[in-house]
Specification:
Layout lengths: L7 E7 L4 E9 L5 E8 L4 H21 L5 E8 L8 H12 L5 E4 L6 H7 L17 H20 L8 E5 L5 H10 L3 E5 L3 H11 L2 E2 L12 E4 L18 E2 L11 H8 L3 E2 L2 H4 L2 H11 L3 H9 L1 H15 L3 H15 L9
Parallel strand pairs: 3-4, 3-5, 6-7, 6-9, 7-8, 9-10, 10-11
Antiparallel strand pairs: 1-2, 2-4
Helix pairs in contact: 1-12, 2-3, 4-5, 4-9, 4-10, 4-11, 9-10, 11-12
Bound molecules: nicotinamide-adenine-dinucleotide.
Nicotinamide-adenine-dinucleotide (NAD) binds next to helix 4.
GO molecular function: oxidoreductase activity, acting on the CH-NH2 group of donors, NAD or NADP as acceptor
Keywords: NAD, Oxidoreductase
Protein name: Glu/Leu/Phe/Val dehydrogenase
Length: 345
């Protein structure tokens, strides 16, 4: 906790339902810690703790860099996701969240969904991402990524137009397929790739798009590589293969390690930090928390473009990666905040 600057870590257990959960509140300088609930069968308690510490800290940076008045928090429920289905367990979890009195606001994450949050909402108000909320954030995330890509194009080519740009979208899931369709609709030369062959074929059919086999994306000559599938795709094995000018996509933790940001920069490839460009999801649940509408979230997500351009300019001025510029910006916001006390619910 001390090394990571975490404010609070709480362990919860409920013998009746078997709930075992850890909630980490990293930093509430800018507002209550908001972050999803991840359900995973961690090998050891230490692994679960490490994950929740890492993820909650990442949420602080994501919220700060998105100019949101929110802090960072995250929760893990330990157990086999297929067996964590009991409503009583989610009600118990809601009571756990509730006793943090609004310092932590929960939402969906890996293996937890809207239905689970509906149950959590029976026992706490400190939950977003319910069926009464603003709905699936994925199209808004895609909207933010679209504007982020435009900002990168502006920075690299001096024009933000996507028409005729060659853009490879990796992953045609909830975010990737919306992004790829938006890009194609604006005249981009979109090539798509997914391990799900049916998804690729359906998209290619509908949009007359080119397809790329999963492994070939890293060697594909293009203007923009947009990873929208899984994390760690820029790694020691792929970083020297990339034949693009820009890496900008929705995936979390695109870089296997931070040093890969430097490796990309040295190769003259602009990397848009995942946590900046994919903030549309957080922006959506933040809008829900603050009582905004879905249209407001779309508008705020579009502003990711200008925010990213500002960070690219800062990185150029300082001779750093955009990742370093984004981290520094988030830290400046935290340091400059008027309130350095714990946020009140
Ligand atoms: P999803 O699960 O709906 O889609 C992921 C897609 O990637 C699937 O179609 C899957 O078949 C494909 N895929 C998996 N491995 C692949 C590989 N090796 N090569 C090519 N395709 C592969 O997920 P999503 O909601 O679209 O999110 C995509 C990424 O964006 C994830 O990293 C997620 O964490 C991140 N993200 C999503 C949101 C959101 O609002 N959904 C917000 C922020 C970040």
């Amino acid at each position: 906790m001390i090394d990571g600057g975490h404010e609070q870590v709480s362990y919860f257990s409920d013998t009746e339902t078997g709930l075992r959960a850890i909630v980490a509140v990293h930093d509430t300088t800018l507002g209550p810690g908001l972050g999803g609930t991840r359900i995973l069968d961690y090998d050891t308690e230490e692994r679960a703790l490490e994950d929740v510490l890492r993820l909650s800290k990442a949420m602080t940076y994501k919220a700060a860099a998105a100019d949101l008045d929110l802090g960072g928090g995250k929760a893990v429920i330990v157990g086999d996701p297929d067996e964590i289905t009991d409503e009583a367990l989610f009600e118990a979890y809601g009571r756990a969240v509730d006793c943090l009195a609004g310092r932590y606001i929960t939402s969906v994450d890996v293996n937890s969904g809207v239905d689970d949050m509906d149950v959590v909402a029976r026992t706490t108000d400190h939950v977003v991402g319910t069926s009464d909320g603003l709905g699936d954030p994925s199209p808004i995330t895609a909207h933010g990524v679209f504007h982020g890509i435009r900002a990168c194009l502006e920075a690299v080519y001096g024009t933000e137009t996507v028409a005729d740009r060659e853009i490879v979208v990796q992953g045609l899931g909830k975010v990737g397929r919306t992004l790829a369709a938006d890009l194609a609709a604006r005249g981009a030369d979109v090539a798509v790739s997914d391990v799900d062959e049916a998804a690729v074929a359906a998209f290619a059919d509908e949009h007359d798009a080119e397809t790329v086999p999963p492994e070939a994306v890293y060697d594909r000559d293009c203007d923009v590589f947009a990873p929208c599938a899984v994390g760690g795709v820029v790694n020691d094995e792929t970083v020297d293969r990339l034949e693009c000018d820009i890496v900008a996509g929705a995936a979390n933790n695109v870089l296997a390690e931070r040093r890969h940001a430097t490796a990309l920069r040295e190769r003259g490839i602009l990397y848009a930090p995942g946590y900046v460009i994919n903030a549309g999801g957080l922006i959506t649940v933040a809008a829900e928390h603050f009582g905004g509408a879905r249209e407001d979230a779309y508008e705020d997500a579009a502003a990711i473009g200008d925010r990213l351009l500002g960070l690219i300019e800062r990185a150029d001025e300082r001779g750093t990666t955009v990742l370093e510029a984004a981290d520094a910006y988030a830290e400046e916001r935290l340091e400059g905040a008027e309130s350095t006390t714990l946020a009140q619910p």
